[in-house]
Amino acid sequence: MITVPSIPHDEAFNCTEEALRTLAAWLERNVMLMYASCWRFEYTASSAAPHLPKIGDRLQFDLPSSANYQLLRDHHGIDVLIYSEAPEQLAGRIVSQLKLGKPVALDIDGYWCPWITAYRKGHIDHGVCITGWSEEDASFIGVDSYYGQSEITLPHDHLLQGALNCYTYELQQPSTSFTAKAWLSRIAGEFHASGTLDALRRFGEELAHSFNFARESEGEPVYEQSRFYLQFDRYRRSRRKLAKVLAYLAHEVEGEVPALIRPALEAEQLFKHWNAMHKLFLKLFLSGRFDSPRTMLISEWNEIVRQEEEIYHMLAEQAIEASGI
């Protein structure tokens, strides 16, 4: 077995991302610049898509993961290879990598993970890091940083039942040099080009006038499985990623860059507002109430939009100063 320590779970990352972060930490590499394009918000107004009555279906979070992996390869030197094949082939590939002394990240149906509450109860995608296998016990051994498990045991037959994808890696020298401030132009430019501020405002207008919890969760066993909940949660996490990307640029790339510290702190505050909004949605859904607290909800959303715009202007100004314009 390869000794791969678990890492503290960070709310910015989903389980697969945590498995990859666990691998990167073991490799003594970082991953943060793979999320440099995370700061966006895409939303289609009902007038432009009348065939999609649910707001959740018009929230779009579709940045190709391939773009993230290219950034990871170019700037952190970790070339991730993703395999989606028959479980028997995945199992063989995992064992081959382990024999080379290389742990593997694995996506698996949580229904087959004995250490989580979804075991034999519900089907959810889950990500772990596989660090060894035992022919004697017919099982794989691993780490689940998302759930804080430093050692997990996955029976071989469970992996064959539930395996979805595996992630191997090759190391290389980072191929792209950069400076911290040079990234600001890219981050601010992508935010502007994606039309995020306009989309945030359109979302707020519809939230104020026609949001309906019953419609958003229609056809789903629980609100947490609705597209609205899942897409909003992805955007919430992306704001935490933004804060971590800016903190990485401010502190770790060229030493201390004081001008970037404030935007990083503001992005952390922005995440807290998104987090409060996310929890408020859940609380209101569980209470069955929405109309009476609508004013409070819109007020919180307007604060989010204000902060998003303020951070954008901070970064845009820094980018202009860095370019000498």
Please describe what this structure looks like.
This is Butirosin biosynthesis protein H N-terminal domain-containing protein. It comes from Paenibacillus curdlanolyticus YK9. With 325 residues, the protein is an alpha+beta fold. It has two domains: 78-171, Phytochelatin synthase, N-terminal domain (Cathepsin B, Chain A); 178-323, no CATH class. The protein has helices at 15-26, 65-76, 87-99, 156-162, 180-193, 196-210, 213-216, 227-251, 261-287, 294-323; strands spanning 42-43, 59-60, 78-83, 104-109, 125-134, 139-144, 149-155, 163-171. Strand 6 (139-144) and strand 7 form a beta hairpin. Helix 5 packs across helix 10 and helix 9 runs antiparallel to helix 10. It starts with 14 loop residues before the first helix and ends with a helix.
